[in-house]
Amino acid sequence: MSIFYIVIGILIFGLLVAVHELGHFAAAKACGVKVNEFAVGMGPAIVKKQKGETLYSLRCIPFGGYCAMEGEDEDTGDSRAFTNQKAWKRFIILAAGSAMNFLMGYVIVLILFSGAGGFRAPVIADFMDGCPYESAVGLQQGDRFLRIDGKRVWQYYDVGDMLNAGGEKHDIVVRRDGKRVKLDDYYMVPVEYEGQTQKMYGFYFGIDEPTAFNKLRYAGSTTMEFVRMVWDALRQLVGGKVSVNDLSGPVGIVDMMAETGEQAESVSAGLYDIFYLGAFIAVNLAVMNMLPIPALDGGRIFFLLVTAIIEGITRKKLDPKYEGYVHAAGMILLLGLMAYVLFHDIFRIVTKT
Q1: Which residues on adjacent β-strands are paired with residue 170?
Q2: Which of 177, 208, 239 is the last residue of a domain?
Q3: What does the alpha-carbon distance between residue 343 and residue 350 come to, in Å, rounded to a whole number?
Q4: Residues 330, 265: one domain?
Q5: pLDDT classification of 175: cutoffs 50, 70, 90
Q6: How many angstroms separate the Cα of 295 from the Cα of each of 40, 61, 73, 100, 306?
Q7: What is the CATH number of the domain that holds 166?
Q8: Domain of 142?
Q9: Catalytic residue at 72?
Q10: Where do runs of H (alpha helix) occur along the chain?
Q11: 208, 242, 268: which is the final residue of a domain?
Q12: Which of the following is catalytic: 21, 70, 225, 323?
């Protein structure tokens, strides 16, 4: 496996984590919270520099990082401690990490799309000869698919995927001449067409010009498609369709990036594919960190809301140490899962070589 692509993968993953912690750090500073240390990486420090009240450090293990705020899980008596801030400030600080990951994913996609010559659009440009769905009361040329069976159409390929997954009748929403048109219980199945080797729905998708607006729009659509892919994967995990063995940690992700680069036809194509995958991972991190699981940002936000409700009813401030115990227990479980995934990733890499 190319060392070049491994290094690129490590740098991208490390950057994703650093950007996440930078979000917490910037929000904490903006809200007046005391930050004791901002670290990129984990383990022993390679470089440390004290600037004002904050210690900045670069650590030897390129996976991870942290923004250590005063009084995260206990009342230290400092008025600038995290636990002494208003609920809305704590919410902003906790959500800022995922927000930065999501923004980074969007920016990466936008940069990759900056040189695009056009975008395949979920718009009907034309119909195949004999298509049964072109009619005055059905689909028409120029229709842009907006929703199918209640799901948002982000990309042109969503149309086929959603129609194939939803049976024979569909609730379809299109934009036609600037207006939303609904086709309820619209019968639609793939049919045979002359010269085609498989059944098809029978329409051709159009192309949107690579204007600045369309680049921004399709970068956003792609990023939102990533969000849906993450949620679909989570549903499959909860539903038992995929197992814990299918999860990947930092080692597995870097290995996946390296393989993606090596399978490309050229170095430039390999870098494009790696950064595209990096954008997906950035969005993945954003979504996963907002899950209401102890020790994750989403778990802290969940407890923040619960605590605010309890304190609003009882008019008494809860001791943050009890929440700290819950997050500590959650962290132990997460570290155990991460250790299992790490060894499984290493075993998978060793056995395939």
Answers
A1: 186
A2: 208
A3: 10
A4: yes
A5: very high
A6: 19, 21, 11, 19, 15
A7: 2.30.42.10
A8: 124-208
A9: no
A10: 3-30, 87-113, 156-165, 212-238, 250-262, 267-289, 297-314, 320-352
A11: 208
A12: 21
pLDDT tens digits, one per residue of 238-287: 888 877 777 777 778 888 888 888 888 888 888 999 999 999 999 999 99
Cα radius of gyration (the chain): 24
pLDDT band at 1 (very low <50, low <70, confident <90, very high): low
Which one-letter DSSP state was computed for residue 318?
Answer: P
What is the predicted pLDDT for the residue at 256? 82
Q: Whose CA is closest to 308, among 295, 289, 293, 323? A: 323
Asked whether the predicted pLDDT for residue 48 surpasses 80, the reply is yes
Alpha-carbon distances, residue 277 vs 216, 249, 257, 304, 319 (angstroms): 19, 14, 7, 33, 42
- Burial class from Cβ neighbours inside 10 Å (0-12, 13-18, 19+) for residue 164 reads exposed
Type of residue at 328: A
Same domain, 187 and 277: no
Instruction: Say if residue 97 is in the same domain as residue 141.
Output: no
